[in-house]
Each structure stands twice: as C-alpha cells, then as structure tokens.
Write a structure and sequence with these properties.
alpha/beta, Rossmann fold, seven-stranded parallel sheet, 7 helices, about 40% helix, globular
C-alpha cells in the first residue's frame, strides 16, 4: 500500500516554492521521489518568474515542459478595509491568486489529459469558506479557487487527472505575519484552534503528497482542510 504514495518518475511543478508552504510541499514531493521544479520570483528557484505580470503563467508552463503534478501555491494579499480597498490591489491579488491558477492549470492539463494521468493541487484557504476581515480580494479569489478546482475536476476526472485543493488553516508564514504580531488577533485565533497552535508549513506536506500520489486516484474536486480543527470549532 505504501507504494501508492511514491512519486518516483513523476515531475512536479510548484509555484511559490522557495519559502513557506510552497517550500515545505516541494520538499515533501521530492522526499516521495518526484523530480520537483520550483518556480518563484527570487533566488533559489529553478525557474524565476513573476506571476503578477500578465503572460508569465504561460511562459512558465512552456519553460517547465510536461509535468505530472502541478501545485498552484504562489500567493499575494493586500490588506485594507473593504470600503477603502483599491481597484489596483483587487486586480493584483486576483491576478496571482486566481487568474494564474486558471492559466497554469489549463496549460499543463492538456498534456496530462493526453497522457492519461495527472494531479493538480491548488492551495485554497479557510477564506474559501469564510469572509475574513480587510482581505476582500483574497477572500474572493480563494472562494473562486475552490469552485475552479471543482470545475476542472468535473471535466478532467474521466481522463485520469485528479484536481483537488488544500485549504490551510492559520500557518506560520510571511503572509500571516501581520496576524501573528497582532496580540489580540493572535489570541483569538489560538482560542479557536483545537490543536492549540499555529500550523507549520510542514503540516501541509503530507496532504500534498497524498493528493499528488496514486493513492488519491478516486479523490476528485475535494477541498481538504488542514487547520488544526478550526473549521470544526
């Protein structure tokens, strides 16, 4: 049974894979035997790409070549009260958090369909289910990512391509730094998490390996919450 979790011979592309959740997932996939291509803006990436710029998602797909596993992890958020939120911030967040997910998934899924096997793992969020505060664009994008995951799964499942998402809870990353440093919000968050702690990026690696593996062959269109029990509370 454990062989069903091995990824030997598979090629994975992980966006935003040089730090935080993306790095932990990339390391997990590599540990399971996959050849991992890391895409990010900064140093340490196999392919340097700025996904906030139009056209870069398709350039990345071409540069990566055929991949068996795609992890759409690259992220961006902008914080402001909803009545003050700017159109530019809205556009910037939707570009990275939604449009790129669609474009990359569409581009790589063509080859997956032709080969009869593939895995797409999108990184959703608790805000795929909840509205959040001062992050309207992020909440809108992550809600859409959950629905986009299901839409892709509906059409690609018959071709051996499984499309699913992971919805992380409150994870210690740079993206959540403002919340971690807010004494009141940090206390409120911890009080609701049954596990009693913030998640670490490595807490997402096992879920990603599972969804990327042959073991998940009958898992389609699922949004897997990894949150220490937040949603259960």
């Amino acid at each position: 049974m454990l062989e069903n979790f091995r990824l030997t011979g598979r090629t994975a592309l992980v966006t935003g894979g040089t730090r935080g959740i993306g790095k932990a997932i990339a390391e997990g996939l590599a540990d399971a035997g996959a050849r991992v291509i890391v895409a990010a803006r900064g140093d340490g990436a196999d392919i340097q790409v700025d996904l906030s710029k139009p056209g870069e998602a398709l350039r990345l797909a071409d540069a990566a070549g055929p991949v068996d596993i795609l992890v759409n992890n690259a992220g961006l958020t902008r914080r402001a009260p909803v009545l003050e939120y700017s159109e530019q911030d809205w556009d910037d967040v939707l570009q990275v958090q939604l449009k790129v997910v669609f474009q990359l998934s569409q581009a790589v899924a063509r080859g997956m369909k032709d080969r009869g096997w593939g895995r797409i793992v999108n990184i959703a969020s608790l805000l795929s289910f909840q509205g959040g505060i001062t992050v309207p664009a992020y909440a809108a994008a992550k809600g859409a990512v959950a629905q986009l995951t299901k839409a892709f799964a509906n059409e690609l499942a018959p071709h051996g391509v499984c499309v699913n998402a992971i919805a992380p809870g409150y994870i210690r990353t740079e993206l959540t730094g403002a919340l971690q440093n807010d004494v009141t919000r940090n206390r409120q968050i911890l009080e609701r998490i049954p596990a009693g702690r913030w998640g670490e990026p490595r807490d997402l690696a096992g879920a990603a390996v599972f969804l990327a593996s042959p073991a998940a062959a009958y898992v389609n269109g699922h949004i897997m919450v990894v949150d220490g029990g937040w949603m259960a509370r």
